Amino acid sequence: MNPGPDPTMSQRLARSELTRDDVVVDLAGFRRELAAARAHTYTNAERVPLSELAEWHAQGGVIRHTSGKFFTVQGLEVRVPTGAVPQWTQPIINQPEVGILGILVKEFDGVLHCLMQLKAEPGNVNGIQLSPTVQATRSNYMRVHGGNPTPYLGYFRDRTRHRVVLDVRQSEQGAWFLRKRNRNMIIEVTEPVEVVDGYHWLTLAQLGELLAVDDLVNMDTRSVLSCVPFAGTVPADLAADHDEDGHTLVASWAGGGPSRHSTTDVLSWITERRTATDIELRQVPLHEMPGWRYEDTGISHVSERFFDVIGVRVDARGREVGQWDQPMFAARGTGLVAFLMTRFDGVPHVLVHARVEPGFTDVVELAPTVQCIPDTYRRMPREDWPPFLEEVLWADPDAIRFDTVQSEEGGRFYRTRSRHVIVETDDLPSHPDFRWLTPHQLTSLLPHSNYVNVQGRSMLTCLRALATTGLAAAARPAPPTERAA
Amino acid sequence: MNPGPDPTMSQRLARSELTRDDVVVDLAGFRRELAAARAHTYTNAERVPLSELAEWHAQGGVIRHTSGKFFTVQGLEVRVPTGAVPQWTQPIINQPEVGILGILVKEFDGVLHCLMQLKAEPGNVNGIQLSPTVQATRSNYMRVHGGNPTPYLGYFRDRTRHRVVLDVRQSEQGAWFLRKRNRNMIIEVTEPVEVVDGYHWLTLAQLGELLAVDDLVNMDTRSVLSCVPFAGTVPADLAADHDEDGHTLVASWAGGGPSRHSTTDVLSWITERRTATDIELRQVPLHEMPGWRYEDTGISHVSERFFDVIGVRVDARGREVGQWDQPMFAARGTGLVAFLMTRFDGVPHVLVHARVEPGFTDVVELAPTVQCIPDTYRRMPREDWPPFLEEVLWADPDAIRFDTVQSEEGGRFYRTRSRHVIVETDDLPSHPDFRWLTPHQLTSLLPHSNYVNVQGRSMLTCLRALATTGLAAAARPAPPTERAA
C-alpha cells in the first residue's frame, strides 16, 4: 500500500495547485472581501490579570476551566540528558482533546476548490486570517460554551456519503502543547454546498499565492495543506506554464527524483534518534517552577525570554458574537523557522532537523533547519546558538527564496508569529541531527502521524507554494532580531 | 518516498523467501543441531515466592530490580468509556528501554540468509527457540547484570559500514507491557562473518517452513520477519514453483492487487478509531487493585482468569551460564490469535481488528480478527464473547489453512503460548471495528511504528509462510479450550 491516494485524485489536486485564473473567486475580489470582513468582524483581546479570568481558576498549580473542558496550563519539568539543555522547567498547555482541522473541497469547471473561512481569532495580530472550513476542538463542536453550531461540521463527522482525501492526526507545537494532536482532514463533496457568509472557494494555487502575504493563511490551514498528496506526474497541459526554477521543484515533488538518502536510511535515522534520546517528563505546580515568576500579570521567565502565559478577555463581533476569558501563550519576539535548501543532481533538498520537543508523542519529529526565537540568543555567545541560525540570519539576500511572516494559531497564541525563510545554499554542512531530504520525501511521510512537526509542515506548505506559483517574496537583508523588536 | 526499500533489495528478499534447497544449512541438519542443542543448553526456571526474588523488591506497590534497570511490574487502572469493558485494573510491565531485535543477513550463492540463534529463555516451554541474531534490552547489552558481551551487537550499533534493510520500532503486547517498543532491525553485511556456536544461516523460506512447527520460531523472530518488505514482483525463475493457492497469495503480496478499501480509507478508519476512543491510564499500587489478590505465590485475579505475576529462579546452562531471579507473567490457558481470510476478486484479504490495548502508544493498532484467551470465556454467555471467536472455534476443519502453537517471548512470559489459526471463509461479516485488508496493505504499514500489534505481526508472518511455502498444518477440529487444559 502506497501512502498516497489514487493517481486520479493526486492529478486533480495537482491541477488545483497550478490553476489560479478562471476560477470561482478571483484574488482581487477575495482581497476586497477580506478588507470588508476586517471592517466588521474582529475579536478584541484585552489583557486581564490571571486571577480575574472568568470561569478559569488556578488549583494545585494548574490553571483550569470550571467546566473541566478546553485545556489546562500546567508546569512541566523536562529532562533530556543527551540534549544541549539537559534539564528545564516550563509552563505547557495540556489539551488532550483531538480537534478537527478540515477543508471541504469541491470541483468547479474541472478544478478542485477549497472552502476557506475568514475567521477572527483573539490572538491574531490582524483580526482575520484564512482558516480551514472547520477548525474546532471537541469542546467547540460539542458546544460546551454554548454558541452556534459549527458550519459544515457534518461533512467531517459523517463521511459515508463523501470522499475522504486526507484524514491524519498531526502534532501541534511540541514546545507549548503536551502531546496535542489535531485531525487534519480534506473531504470532497459532489453535492451542492451553500456558501455561508465569510466562506470562499479558492484553488490550491490561489492559497499558495496568498502564502506570500504576511499573517494571512493561518497555521491550521498551512498544516492541512502540507498533507495534500502530490501527483506522480504533473498534468501535461499545465507543467509547461512554469519557470525553470519552479519547474525543477515541481518535478522533484512529482516524481520524487533521486534523493540523497534512501527511504530506508531516513526511517532508520529517525528510529536511531528516537531510540538514542531519553526524555523524562514530570508535572510540577506552576508556582514551583525554578526560573519562572508566577504573578497576576502573567507567568514569565526571570530572564524575560521564551514566552509568557497571560490572561485575556475576548470580545468577539461579527459572525461569531460573544465574550469570554482565557489564558494564552505569548512568545517573546518573533520566531524564525527556516529551511536551508540545496540541489543534488538538480533535485531540490531541504536540510531537516530531527528535533526533540517535550510535547511530541514519539520523542522526535522532523523540523525545519532552524526553529527558534532569535531574540533568545541575542546576548548569548555564538557557540550556544542553534545550528545554522547564523547561516540564515546572515544569508545573502539573493539566496533568500521565500521570506514571509506567518502567525501561530490565534486561539491559543497571542500575537505570536514566525518569519518563514527559505535560503538556497551551496554549502553542504554535515551534522548528525540533520539530513537533506527532498520535499517529496517529506510529503510522503505525512499520511502518517508523528513524522513532521507543525513548523516543518508550515514550511513545507510555503516551499510548495514557492514551487508551484514561482513566487519569491522580496529579500529582506536585515537580521530578524531587528524586525522582532 | 515509498516506505519500501529499493526494488533490488526486495527482489533479493523475495528470492530468499522462495529458496529452501541448495542452501548453507539444510533443514534436516538444522533439526539435528536443534536436538543436540536442546540436550546441553537450557534454562531451568523454578517458581519461587515473590518476596524471595533476589535483587527484586516491592516498594510503594511496584516490583523493581535493585539496580533500577530491566523493568518494573506496576498496577494500572484503565478507563475506556466506549469499550466493551469500560474500566478495569491489572498488573502491567513497565520497560521503557528500547531493546534491539536484529537479524543479520548475508548473501551466499546469490541468496540472502539470516543468522539465527538457538536461544534458551526461562519462560520457553521447550528450552530453546529460534531467535534473531541479537535480542537484547539496553540493560542486557550495557551488561547491567554482568555477563558476556552480546555476539554480533556491533553490526546493529554501528551501521555505517553495513546496509540497513529495516529499522523500525514496533510495539509489544499492549495488554501486558506499558508502551514497550523494540527496535526491529535487519542489517546486511558483505564481509565475512564468523559463526559462533549456536548460530545458523537460514533462508526466509526455511524460516517459513519452520513456522509450521509448534513453539520453534520465537516471537521476536516472527515480529522482525513480518516487517520484511516484499517485492513489487516475484523473481520470474521462482514464481512458477508454487501451487495455485500459494501463488495467489504471493501475487497479492507482490503486486498488491485490488484491495477492498483504498489506502486513504484504511488510514482514515484508523484515525477515526483513535480519535473516537478516550483512554485514561492511572498507576495504582499492586496491592490495591480491585479484583486481584497479591500473595507471596503470585498476583492473581480472583476469578482465576487472565494471567498471574509469578516469581522464578533461573538456572542457565549452556552458552550463557548464570543464575538469576525475576518476576514473569504467566497466562491462564493457551491464547488464540486468528485471521479470518477471504478473497475479493481472487485477492486474499484478512479481517483486521482496530484494537485498543492500554499499553499502545497511540490508542489503537491493527490486530488479528480474534485475539484472546478462550478459557476466559468458557463460562460466559455467548453474547459476551469477542466478535468472531465462535467462527474460529467452530471452523470447518477443511477451512483451516494454518494452525500452529507459537510461544510468547520467553524472557518475560512463562510458558505462555497462542494457537495461531488462519480460517478461510466466504462469510463477509461487517463490523465497525473490523476491515478486510490485503496482506500487502498490512506489510506496507510496517516501515512505520504503531500500526500493527505484535500478534498481528506474528500472524502476518505465518500467513506469509503459508503463501510462500504452501504449507498447511493439519486441521485440528477440537476447540482450543480443550487443548489448553
Secondary structure elements and pairings:
2 copies of one chain form a homodimer.
Chain A (H helix, E strand, L loop, with lengths): L6 H11 L9 H14 L1 E7 L7 E4 L2 E4 L6 E8 L7 E8 L4 E10 L2 E10 L7 E4 L2 E3 L1 H4 L11 H5 L5 E9 L9 E8 L10 E4 L1 H7 L8 H8 L9 H4 L4 H12 L7 H14 L3 E5 L7 E4 L2 E4 L5 E11 L4 E10 L3 E10 L2 E10 L7 E4 L2 E3 L16 H5 L6 E8 L9 E8 L9 E4 L1 H7 L8 H16 L10 H4 L2
Parallel strand pairs in A: 6-11, 18-23
Antiparallel strand pairs in A: 1-16, 2-3, 4-5, 4-13, 6-7, 6-9, 7-8, 7-12, 10-11, 14-15, 16-17, 18-19, 18-21, 19-20, 19-24, 22-23
Helix pairs in contact in A: 1-5, 5-12, 6-12, 8-11, 8-12
Brief overview, please?
The structure is a homodimer of 485-residue chains. Chain A has 485 residues and is α+β, with helices and mostly antiparallel strands.
Question: C-alpha Rg of chain A, in Å?
Answer: 22 Å
Counting helices, strands and paired strands, the structural category of chain A is alpha+beta
Largest sheet of chain A: 7 strands, mixed
Largest binding interface between chains: A-B, 39 and 39 residues
N- to C-terminal distance of chain A = 49 Å
Number of strands of chain A: 24
- Name the beta content range of chain A: 25-35%
What is the 3D form of chain A? globular
Query: How would you describe the oligomerization state of the chains in this entry?
Result: homodimer
Q: Number of helical runs of chain A?
A: 13
Q: Mean of the pLDDT scores of chain A?
A: 88
Uncertain segments of chain A of ≥5 residues (pLDDT<50)? 1-5, 471-485
